[in-house]
Amino acid sequence: MLKKSLWSSFATDPEKYPKLNKDIAVDVAIIGGGITGITTAQALTERGYTVAVLEARSVGHGTTGHSTGNLYIIIDELLSSLKSKYDKDVVIRVIESRKAALEKIEENVEKFGIDCDFSRQPLFLYEDVNNMKILEEIKAAKEINLAFTELSEDFPFEQDNGIRFDHQAQFNPLLYVLGLAASLDKEKCSIYENTAVRSVEEQKDRVLVNTSEAIVAAKYAVHATHTPKGLELQYHTTLGSYREYGVAAKLESTSYPQGIFWGYYNEQKYSIRSYSRGDENYLIAVGSPHKVGQAENNQKHVEDLVAFIQEQFIVGQITHTWGGQNYKPADLLPFIGRKTKNSREFIATGFSTDGLIYGALSANIIADKIEDKFNRFEDLYEAARHQPTKSAKKFVKENVNVAGEFLKDLSFKGDDKDLMEIPPGEAAIITRNGEKVAVYREPNGEYKIVSALCTHMACMVHWNNVEESWDCPCHGSRFDTSGEVIEGPAYNALPKKIIE
Fold this sequence. Notes:
Blueprint: E1 24-31, H1 35-45, E2 51-54, E3 70-71, H2 79-85, H3 88-112, E4 119-127, H4 133-143, E5 149-150, E6 161-170, H5 173-183, E7 189-192, E8 197-202, E9 207-211, E10 215-223, H6 233-236, E11 239-250, E12 260-265, E13 268-277, E14 280-291, H7 298-312, E15 318-329, E16 335-338, E17 345-349, H8 355-370, H9 388-410, E18 427-432, E19 435-441, E20 447-451, E21 462-464, E22 469-471, E23 478-479, E24 485-487
Parallel strand pairs: 1-2, 1-10, 2-7, 4-12, 10-17
Antiparallel strand pairs: 3-6, 4-6, 5-6, 8-9, 9-10, 11-14, 11-15, 12-13, 13-14, 16-17, 18-19, 19-20, 21-22, 22-23, 23-24
């Protein structure tokens, strides 16, 4: 079984981009090379701006390459959740904005001939017991005149209630982003991989983006990193960082029903779809969400997902497992636009699990703002907004959770272990000379030892035994076993430590 996303198995010969090793100047520096960053680069270069995309690892292989590849106009939290916080007009405009983004993705696929298996598909919502969720969704859809059909008895999966939304879509998200990146005007856009940003300094008439080896001077900077980098507490305190898992299993034929299936089994949501490329046919299931760094045993989440897919469907070998991260906004809408009222920095965050659509939508809103052009959806997602009546309950819940994790770890003394007691392939937090250190013992017996305190806000990291990473339970930063940042708001690596 491969511990990587299914999509990465089909990106066998991606274009390689250089590492930035000299100072440059451009109109816009974009931090992050996923669907948000690459689509923003496309939108800006088409308007004549020069752009540098700075990707810490490989283009498309972050959150985008670990998503479901589903494209839909409703939201992950469902229409009924939106309707509980906003009036009818806002809900309709959210749907319209997401529809426009889906159409932009389809336009790009056709315009640039991107081979990413894009196809229009229906979205099915169903539940195995009558817990009223689908009935609430039917009511919300009727109130905004969104077309749907109720499921008939010949629906292929057992269900108590269900509805269908037609003309949604699916694709291979990694192949899409790689294809879009390859199509960009190379005279106006430079892409750099393995180029981690260490800090961003906003000045009166420019922004300096500092990487490990160079400085990018730009008129504007865009944080296309799924969550803003640095100590942007006005955003981090309104976002909950969550992780969930995906598994792929071989299918014996292409006769499996086509479409996006959101099933609620005992009130647990699973996202299910099939995928075929060439002679390879797969079933994909995504679920088992939990707060980043707060799972007692990450492996158990994957095992539960594998058990679910094997119990519910006739599948062959489990071929891939992977994890994906999302940031849920307290008021259900993402933050897209200027960091503050007159800032030269732009952010796009709080996408929940709807990042493919919101990534494409962000690109157009941000490009319009940089061009000083009105965008009809900008007010919906204004990054500097403050909506206490719509976010208070979840805001309090998330921050109590963060405070609880911080206080709990303050009292944790570290495992009372010698290095030799840590089995090969496993990890532990231990205390040496009054300092907590994170120790990973490689299968060959060698040790990787780093500080156990996250470089974002000094919360203690926790071991993720599925993805072999150190995950911060406070704001979702993740680090590899060498301490390098994988994702999240942290700029800097966990410092390496030596134990005598």
